[in-house]
Write a structure and sequence with these properties.
CATH class: Mainly Alpha
Number of strands: 0
CATH topology: Hypothetical protein af1432
CATH superfamily: Hypothetical protein af1432
Number of domains: 1
Largest sheet: none
Length: 143
């Protein structure tokens, strides 16, 4: 983990936002963004990794993040990663290609979410989800 003023603020918000959530296997959800942040090489991508699901999966808004003083580069990437359910998934993923920060974090997110060892039970739904994630990875890795 990269510990800077920015990443510490993102860590605290990430924990506050996700502390009562569980993932599909009943593990504390907050382990997922922490895992992504550990893989990042700079403070901006680490902060985005920590915040990538805060707006999508909690009551926090982009305005809240802005009011908390997160810089424009973080806000832009988090905003891009906050999926509008009306947009088809692979179309959403393709748009992330244009932002190097969002692209880097999303690739790590997709790889972690594709790790079936995280699940207690692997069913057809999980296998279909991983196939969708593999398609998104291919899109994001295209030159």
């Amino acid at each position: 983990m990269i510990y800077t003023e920015l990443t510490k603020k993102a860590l605290k918000l990430c924990y506050a936002a996700h502390r009562d959530q569980m993932d599909k296997s009943g593990m504390p959800y907050v382990f997922h963004p922490f895992h992504l942040a550990e893989q990042m090489e700079d403070e901006v991508t680490a902060a985005v990794a920590l915040l990538h699901d805060v707006v999508e999966d909690t009551s926090y808004t982009m305005r809240d993040l802005e009011a908390l003083g997160f810089p424009p580069q973080v806000l832009e990437a988090v905003g891009m990663m906050t999926r509008d359910p009306a947009v088809p998934y692979l179309e959403y993923a393709a748009k992330l290609k244009d932002n190097p920060v969002a692209r880097t974090v999303k690739l790590a997110d997709l790889r972690h979410n594709s790790d079936l060892s995280r699940l207690d039970t692997v069913d057809e739904k999980a296998l279909r989800r991983v196939e969708k994630y593999k398609q998104a990875i291919r899109i994001l890795e295209e030159e």
